[in-house]
Amino acid sequence: MKRAVLITAMFLGAGTAVAAPAPVEDVAGGSSDERVARLERIIKAKQQSEFDTQRRLDALQKEVLDLRGITEQQNYQLNQMLERQRQLYEEIANLSTKAAVPVASTENSVTTDVAATSSLGETGSYEAAVNLVLKERKYDEAIPAFRNFIKQYPQSSFAANANYWLGQLLFNKGENAEAKKAFNTVVVDFADSNKRGDSLVKLGMIAEKDNNQTEAKAFYNKVLKEYPNSASARLAQQQLSAL
């Protein structure tokens, strides 16, 4: 009896051993510990990738900010240059007619200045002519200096401005016919010049002085059409309103 019970117990134990569940494994066949380790590696890799991406984004943002700063600085410098140029033109525009000087003295001075500027080259000759106006206030001497520059360098990048300066100086002296020629040269020959709008305004003013209001209005309206929202347009509108 005892032997039968013992045999039965052995069979039951063997059955229990066979029915025990297998160790837990993931879809790849690894154990739960291996799966956890694999998940940890995946999470760490994802975190590193996100960190690297954020670092690149931060670097790009810094580059954008740096470029924006450079652009703003360049715009500021450009605006400063444009403002300085505008001031220079306003100064020449507000020049009053100088009192007449003895002919012999003027001729000698003009001859000397023209001879001096002729040897300076393109840029030097232009700057010398401008300096006669802005620094030395030798307005009569500046006229032949600009004429000489225009004759020597008709296609210079300064030619449009030189013609405008010449026209303004002649306009201030009341030599309207010669001034008209200079301003018209800017309008016709230098269509891309930033002084074209101003030259059209001056042609309108000359037309007013010649009692030709129809022509003056045509010049002013041309400025308003071709250069809206500009300083030239504002001046043209003022002249139109005064007619």
Automatic annotation (TrEMBL):
<comment type="similarity">
    <text>Belongs to the CpoB family.</text>
</comment>
<dbReference type="InterPro" id="IPR034706">
    <property type="entry name" value="CpoB"/>
</dbReference>
<dbReference type="InterPro" id="IPR019734">
    <property type="entry name" value="TPR_rpt"/>
</dbReference>
<dbReference type="Pfam" id="PF13174">
    <property type="entry name" value="TPR_6"/>
</dbReference>
<keyword id="KW-0132">Cell division</keyword>
<protein>
    <recommendedName>
        <fullName>Cell division coordinator CpoB</fullName>
    </recommendedName>
</protein>
<dbReference type="Pfam" id="PF16331">
    <property type="entry name" value="TolA_bind_tri"/>
</dbReference>
<keyword id="KW-0732">Signal</keyword>
<feature type="signal peptide">
    <location>
        <begin position="1"/>
        <end position="19"/>
    </location>
</feature>
<feature type="domain" description="YbgF trimerisation">
    <location>
        <begin position="32"/>
        <end position="100"/>
    </location>
</feature>
<dbReference type="GO" id="GO:0043093">
    <property type="term" value="P:FtsZ-dependent cytokinesis"/>
</dbReference>
<dbReference type="InterPro" id="IPR014162">
    <property type="entry name" value="CpoB_C"/>
</dbReference>
<dbReference type="InterPro" id="IPR032519">
    <property type="entry name" value="YbgF_tri"/>
</dbReference>
<dbReference type="InterPro" id="IPR011990">
    <property type="entry name" value="TPR-like_helical_dom_sf"/>
</dbReference>
<keyword id="KW-0574">Periplasm</keyword>
<dbReference type="GO" id="GO:0030288">
    <property type="term" value="C:outer membrane-bounded periplasmic space"/>
</dbReference>
<dbReference type="Pfam" id="PF13432">
    <property type="entry name" value="TPR_16"/>
</dbReference>
<dbReference type="GO" id="GO:0070206">
    <property type="term" value="P:protein trimerization"/>
</dbReference>
<comment type="function">
    <text>Mediates coordination of peptidoglycan synthesis and outer membrane constriction during cell division.</text>
</comment>
<keyword id="KW-0131">Cell cycle</keyword>
